[in-house]
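retry 2 of 3: previous attempt timed out while embedding magnesium ion. Reduced batch size to 1 and resubmitted. Inputs unchanged:
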Amino acid sequence: MTISPSYAAHRDITPNQHPGLRLRQLLTQGTPAKIMGAHDGLSARIATDTGFDALWASGLCMSSALGVRDSDEASWTDLLAVASRIVEATPLPVLVDGDTGYGNFNTARRYARQAERLGAAGICIEDKVFPKMNSFVGNSHKLAPVAEFCGKLRACREALRDPSFVVVARTEALIAGLGLSEALRRAEAYRQAGADAIFIHSRKTTADEIASFMHEWDNRLPVVIAPTTYYRTPQKTFEEIGIGGVIWANHSMRAAVTAMREACRVMYASGPTAVEEKIATLSEVFGLLEYDQLAKDEERYQL
Ligand code: SPV
Ligand code: MG
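retry 2 succeeded.
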């Protein structure tokens, strides 16, 4: 059982560096930061071990892992309890999905403060109305008025203690079908309200509307995207159009669903023999969770 080199290397990053500063650096380094979605401590460890730059505590995936829908069914305290496990499990900066901030400026700023307190690098708030529905479900995605959302952003910024904690403003203008000029108008208003980065979301199968946005946006703030539906876009394109961070928001959760379903299906039909060689060994799990480190610590402290 050994700790993989990538995990061991990452472990030394954060003690001296605030996670918000690290995330800011990653979003402005010139190549898009690779940000992996996580839904629990285990998925956080696996993504860290693989070498990702940062993690996205995904509302969709944390909700799915809790067995509920991504429509504000989990409470924000439920989600922050999971986000806290993710932060604890990784030395990487964690961007917490804050959904709509659960209501008004007041709930949003409490959510942001709690995320800051638990050690996250930043929070992302989106401009839909509460209760929101996942962006890939249905066609009813009502947006909050711009002024109201700007108030939420300002309230978050002013409630946060650490100026390096990142506030990402996410506009759902393209998801709501309101077009590029509305997306730009909103992003600019959110920049002026104090956002540190913009998340522009799209559910098209190509990156065309994202590329148009980036062209007009002209690097006024770092931009993050979640190319769930335009995943075929070459990674190089994201760099060329100036994206600051690419969030692979839900792939670990979806991979887990497939693997668990298959293992359950085979085991139900014919018992565990056929799955044994296809699933992680316990030794791999113990390695991931650094059981060997505990043994060393026992020698050191349990005298
Ligand atoms: C999430 O992962 O919860 C997101 C991204 O908000 S998406 O599901 O693509 O809207
Ligand atoms: Mg979400």
